[in-house]
Structure formats: structure tokens, C-alpha cells
Amino acid sequence: MCQLIKIVFRNIIKNFKQSxxxxxxxxxxxxxxLYIFTYIFHQSGFDRFHTKSxxxxxxxxxxxxGNTVEKLTNSQIPLAETALNDLPEVEAATRLFYDExxxxxxxxxxxxxxxxxxxxxxxxxxxxxxxxxxxxxxxLTEPNTIILTENYSKQLFGIENPIGKIIKVKExxxxxxxxxxxxxxxxxxxxxFKFLASFKSIPNERLKxxxxxxxxxxxxxxxxxxxxxxxxxxxxxxxDFPNDYVNGMLKxxxxxxxxxxxxxxxxDHRLQPLNEIYLDPVFSDQxxxxxxxxxxxxxxxxALFILIIACLNFINLSTAFSSLRAKEIGxxxxxxxxxxxLIVQILSETFLQCSIALISALVILFFGLSVLNQxxxxxxxxxxxxxxxxxxxxxLIPVVITAMAGIYPAIIISKFNPVVSLKxxxxxxxxxxxxxxxxxxxxxxxxxxxxxxxILVKKQLLFLRSQNPGFNKENVLIVKNSRQLKDKRxxxxxxxxKSPDVLSASYTSALPSMFDDASNMFQVPNxxxxxxxxxxxxxxxxEKTLKIEIAEGSFFTEERGNxxxxxxxxxxxAEMLGWRDIQDKxxxxxxxxxxxxxxxxxxxFNIKSFKEEILPFIIRKEAQHDYLAVRxxxxxxxxxxxxxxxxxxxxxxxSVLDYEFxxxxxxxxxxxxxxxxxxxxxxxxxxxxxxCFGLFGLVSFIANRKVKEIGIRKVNGxxxxxxxxxxNKDFIKWVVIAFVIAAPIAYYAMNxxxxxxxxxxxxxxxxxxxxxxxxxxxxxxxxxxQSWKAATRNPVEALRYE
Length: 802
What we know:
Elements: H1 2-14, H2 16-44, E1 56-65, E2 68-72, H3 79-86, E3 90-106, E4 109-119, H4 123-126, E5 131-133, E6 145-149, H5 150-157, E7 166-169, E8 174-182, E9 195-198, H6 204-209, E10 219-225, H7 231-240, H8 243-251, H9 257-262, E11 266-273, H10 293-320, H11 326-334, H12 339-376, H13 388-414, H14 418-423, H15 430-466, E12 476-479, H16 489-497, E13 502-508, E14 519-523, E15 530-538, H17 542-546, E16 550-553, E17 566-570, H18 571-577, E18 586-589, E19 594-602, E20 617-621, E21 627-632, H19 637-650, E22 659-661, H20 662-667, H21 671-705, H22 707-715, H23 720-754, H24 765-791, H25 795-799
Parallel strand pairs: 4-9, 6-8, 15-20, 17-19
Antiparallel strand pairs: 1-2, 1-10, 1-11, 3-4, 3-7, 3-10, 5-8, 6-9, 7-8, 12-21, 12-22, 13-21, 14-15, 14-18, 16-19, 17-20, 18-19
Subcellular location: Cell membrane
Organism: Mariniphaga sediminis
Membrane topology: Multi-pass membrane protein
């Protein structure tokens, strides 16, 4: 073994140029693969730390009613208890309820929170969040109790023990006693909360109001199934069981379940495995963070291609330079080395190079992780490399690459004829040459596809950002916690309007990119058709603050007096209802049991991103003030922010002002696509870098093999340009072939990706042309550098000993 290691090291040093090229290209490939797969393992490993994760399911529903198709995570309040009583396969059921936009008050301090969570007493029977202080069986069983995460406890109380302390929440008109401390929630949990209040803290009368089967409350329902449950048969059983209860809901709409289904509607309850929640972002009402399964698949394919490119590079260089080892192999065969011994030696050399490359890749990741994270806009922490899958990947990489990249060269080299080998005359001709060029072509196929993808992602993002959203998002500041102003909101708004830098201001329940999918069921009188419209509550200044356009009629005004019975719809809703004008148009709201007069139609504007179709919605004037939108003078952002902060403190607001600019919030909807574009671009660069190392080594080898031929041609009058053409033409031919193959593959892949967008850019011809020119240019530069050195060498040096 020691002798083998010595030989392996000696051969690596002896073939130093080839070894360096191999190790550098493998290092880049392995670093990219580890980075991608660590990210994928983290993203796909959400919620698996719960010991019962395979048996936990969330109750969700697919609903089609009239014009609307929705996938809902929110469920009905009676569902958990009904499932537990009616389905023997259910071992336990628990619910998480949430309120929005509240202030937690401790003495003279106030802490604003977007979400206030309630959990049932059996929450820890199902989920394995670690409780540092308190009894998990009792911490949430009493009304008006709350548990805090470790970090949030420090934020509220510092180093003081919070157990028994009281937290007031004015919005809920309630106080909560701290009964426990939770370990900070793991990053790979779809549920992210700072605290949990007991479910029993919700007033009974409030629960009763929401307990109808037709009411999808702000509630998640989770079921824990028995260990011996047959999942496939239980899912079918579960899908059918709520129908009897849905019948009661439909009675309120004067519908039977049969009639409901006959009209093409459906109401499908189904179960969603806990481990799939994070990567299933199709639900319209979810408030937790989520990932993108399609993006992970794209990255996994890229990682696979980088691995293949790195291995092909190794194979190409090893087989090309194998003829330089002909005498060594011939001598070893003559003195009795068997074929198997030679294969073991060559595989050992490959394994050692892979191991060196792996260590180098880990060093790069260790010192460059923060730079990579900053560039790709993702947050991979060092601890992610310590999970089982990442460690297994690290250990398997040298083995897998040795098998993929080392076996073929080992077999080829071990087959050398000793007589021919000792003459040192081994040449690479015929099938081997075609195979080598084919491997080069494959590397450029991958590169061209990746470059096309990078360009298209950038082009699509530019397209989305350049579209007219139907409102003016520039110079609009949003106060996100304006609900805290309560009865002071009108005075606060008037104070801001006194500034010449503030052009207008409007209170609203929703804004573009800040929309919670709130919707109601409506019906036009004397019509049997029922429709679902999204709703927005605004004041009379909404139109001029967002600069939306009125297609017909007018917006709300103070001059008209009471506007509570009036409403506007957008053009999409008007078209859906078959309205050409607003004359004598009224609509009935089933949720509020009230009829509204339609006074106007607004032009469509995107309340969500351009990834989705325009929503049909109704606008009503209500005293809702979730957000305050403030239109300001250009270049006045700093002074207006300062003004709002001063006024906020002046109104004795204890919590910190929470604000954001509308244009940034709207653009942040494309954050995942920006991240994907950066990652594809980075790995395109790495793939071409690896290919260039291989090409560089290959051209260097060919030029050295043809040094005498080049010398003779130069002596006979050949020009440098003719020598360059001779050395370059084969490589250029294979790059062109690569382009012909890559273009349709890229076209198909990019078309599939664009299907995710309601509004999409065109697949322009220049995307493919630019990718082809880039590939050709890079290949020419790489090849020509070595070719030029060979072509300008003095022919006397090549022919001196002939």
C-alpha cells in the first residue's frame, strides 16, 4: 500500500500540468456541486426534525366556485374536532389560529408584530419544538397564557426571567401571562413564530361567530395519524367525510351539494404532508415562508451537468495525455504488472486528485461562503454542511467522481500494447478522437443552454419590471402599522398633509404587493350566478394617491356624503359580470348581507405581481386603516421619513414605525426569480471555466503532438494564420455542432419555465445567437492562445534532431 501511494504521488508530480488542470477543474466543479446540494438539502429538509413528521398532515382545500379557483390552507374551526371524532385513523388534531397587526405592551415599551399566534394545549403532542422552561403538557392549557422563544424573551425582558410576567395586547383587549420559554425555532421549519398564546384565550363568542362550516377562518388544522394508517386509503376517506358538513354551508346560499357540483363547482378537502408544505407555494392564503420546488429541480440539473462536465474534462485530459505515459505502462507490463494492478494504480491517482480537489473546494466554501451568499442572495450557514445528507455527499463525491471519471481512462491505459508502448508511438486516432471531440461538444451544449437560460431570466425580469401595473408605484411610502393610530388616524394624516413634500395620503386595507386575498361571495339581483370578488377597503384619497384610472363613473368623494352603500369594481370584474356600463348596477354581498350601488369602474391594476392574472375585485369605502399610503415629492424621501417618525413619536406611539416604499415592495415579489438568475449565471460561468481548462489542456497536448508537423509546414512556407486555422478548425466545428444541439433544448426548457408567468417576454432569436457567439468566442480565445504559441515557435527547435 505504501509503495502504491508513493507511485501515485510520483506520477501526479511527474504529470504536473495535467494534474493541475484536472484538480483545478474538479475543485470548481465540486465547490459548485456542494454549494447547490447543500442548499437543496436545506430547502427540501423542512420540518423533518419533528419525530412524527411522516404522520403529520395539514388540512387544506381546493375550491372552485363560479369564476374562482382557489387552493386554501385556512380551514374551518369545527374541522379538527369533527375529524378526531369521525375518523378513527386520527390520533390527534391541533389548530393554530392567528390575528394580524398587534402591539405587545410591557410596562412602557411596545412591540409591533404582524402575526399573533394561538395554539391548542396539545400542540407539543404533535410538534417537537423544544421547550426550555415550562411543562409542555400544561403551558398552553389555560386561557390568557403565552410562551416566548428564547430570543424574543430577551428582546422583551432582557436577561430577566419572564415567567409569570404580563404582556398586554390592546388590539385584543387582553393580557397574557408568560408560562414558558421555547428554544428558538429552527430555520428549517415552515412555522416561524416568536410566541404562542393559548387557543383558549380566544373569546367563546368570537369562536362561535366563526364556527360555521362556510367560514374559512385564519386557522391551520394539523392531524396526527395512527402509525398503522394506510395513507392512500385514508386520503380517499378524508376527501369525502366533510361533504355532509359542507351541505350546511351551501344551504346559506340556497344551494344543494348536487346542484353545486352540477354547475362545475367543487369543494375538495385533502391532506397535505407536513414535509411537503414548504415547497408547495400554490396556496393563495398562506402566510408562512415557502420555497420553490421548480427552482430546486433546475439547480439540481445544473449541479448534475457540472458534475458530468468535470468528469468529462478529466476523462478527456487523461485519455489525451495517456500516450505520454506509454513507455511507463509498457515497462510495467514487461516486468510483470497485471492489467488489474495498472487499473488500481490509475484509479488511485484519480481518487487522490479528487480528494485534493474536495479539500480545496471545502477551503473555498469555508472562506468564500459569505461572498457567495451575498452574490446569490441566499443564506447558507456553515451548520447546513453538518447534516447527514451533506456529510454523505462530501464523502461520496471522491468515490463517485473516481468511478465516473477514472474507470474509462484506467481501462484504456491498461490495454496499451507493451511493444507499441515502448516505442512511445501511441497516437489518438479514429473513434477515440471523435469521442474526445464529442465530450468537448457536450460541455459546450451545457454552457450554451445555461447562458440562454441566464439571459432569458434577466430578460423576463426586465419585462416584468417594465410593465405598467396600472398605478404609479414611484414615490409612495407605506406606513405598515398604521392600525395602531386608531382614533388618531385622521389627525395623523392631516398633520402629514400640512407638509409641502406630502402630495396625498390614503388609508387602505390592501395595496399592490401587500394583499391578503380577502374575498367575498356576491350575486347580481335577478341572477342565479354567484361570483367571488376580492375586496379592498379604502378612503376617498386612494385614487389620487396611487394614481389609478377611472374608466367610468367616479371615485368616492366627501361631497357625496355617506358612501357606505356604494362601491366600485375593476374592469376585470365588470367584464366577468357582463356589465358594459354602471347604470342602475347593484350587487349583493353574501358575507356582509348587504347590497351595494356601483358608482364606478376602475381600470385594471395589478394588486399582485405580473406572475399572476389580474384579479376581479370590488372597492368599498370603509374605516379600515391597515396601511397608510403617502405620496411624496420626488427626492424628498429622507425628509418625509424624518417627518413621519417625528409625528409618530408626537402621537405617543410606543412602538417603532414600520414603513416601506411601494416600489421596493412590488419589486421584491420577483426576489426568487432574481436569485435564480444570479445562481444560473454563476454556475454558467463555472461550467465554461471548467470547459476552458479542459480545452486549454487538450489544445496544448495536440499542439505538442504536432510540433514536428508544424515545423515542417513552416519550413515549407506555411503562414501563422494557416497553422492557426489547422489547429482551430476542429474545435470550432464541434462548438457549432454543440450550438445546433443546444438551441432546441434551451428553447424547450425556457418555454417550460415561462409557463409559470401570466405575463411573459418573447423568446427572441438574439438570445440563442448571443449564447452561440459567446461559446464560439470563448472557445476561440482558449484554443488560439495555445495555437498561437505553437504556430509562432521557431521550426528549428522542432526539427533540430531530425
